Amino acid sequence: MDISRSHSVVTPTHWVWVDLIRVVASFQVILIHVSYPIFFKDELPPSSITAANFYDSFSRMSVPLFFMISGALLLGRQEPITAFLWRRFVKVGVPVLFWSAFYLFWSVEAYRNGSMNALHITLSVLKAIYLGNLEIHLWFLYVLAGLYLVTPLLRLLVSSASHLDLAYFTVLWLASTSLTELAERLFGSPTAFEIPVASGYIGYFVLGYWLSQIRLSRYTLWWVGWGVLCSVFAIFFGTIFLSAGAERIDFFLYSYFSFPTVLASVCAFLLLKDFGQRINGGFLKLLRVFSASSFGIYLVHILVIELLRKGAFGFRLYAWMGHPALFIPLTALVVFLLSFLIVSVLRTIPGVRMIIP
What we know:
Blueprint: H1 12-35, H2 46-59, H3 62-74, H4 81-107, H5 109-112, H6 118-131, H7 139-159, H8 163-187, H9 202-212, H10 218-243, H11 259-276, H12 282-292, H13 294-310, H14 324-346
């Protein structure tokens, strides 16, 4: 294993593996949101729940992968704080604020039926954004915004950190997230133990930067591949075990900080990074096209899921209209492609790129 580090300008090959992870994580997020409602439909047979559990277990790495590629791309750069924050606000902040308001207007009847005046609507939307009462997928972007705010400080830390320093930070992060979650589950009450500077999603952010500097041998990559497989099946079978005899599925292992999810995310990041560096030819061009629209796909896919369920495109499609083992991936693929087409069309309209970059 070569753990030499480089602070050079990002190379085209580097961008290829980032594109690959973006596309894979985008599709996995859609898989989660397509399969998730099945867990709450009592009329469906156990095999449907099992299918949803499988696809959800496979996709738990998606959000950590997004945080990790953000850290990989941003923490190694040096730029003025004001310039960095302004670019992040224009690229991410404006779209997030727009789509937060859009989904609130779209989903809350009181906004649409005229029972609230303009002032009340504005205050209500601002309150919902402040409290985080938003569409299910937008929480990630508000956490990411918080990470952007501390990125200039994190750059100072990682620029002088050794591999040992970053390993120590990772251990602290695992102790303050994965270990404390497990302890709370085992003992039935929260712990007073806290490590403020190494908690939450900041660990994935820093991990992405660190792992982007590491090259693995072909032999080690085989073990990394087994790590992905074993951790996914640990989530899948572990969830079945924990849910046995319960009225609802037990989501403990679905946490983005559970040990199997962390392992799956780290191993998948390393595996996709290596595979992405080997991509060329026509697939490379297609990958870049989808990657360029991944943020827009993330923003609109919840809308597309709902419109498909209602038949707004001339046909109805949802994960439980047939057996979920087939209809979850089928629905997710259709949602992904329709979202891509919608984003591609909208981005041709002057000014719309501000809300779908």
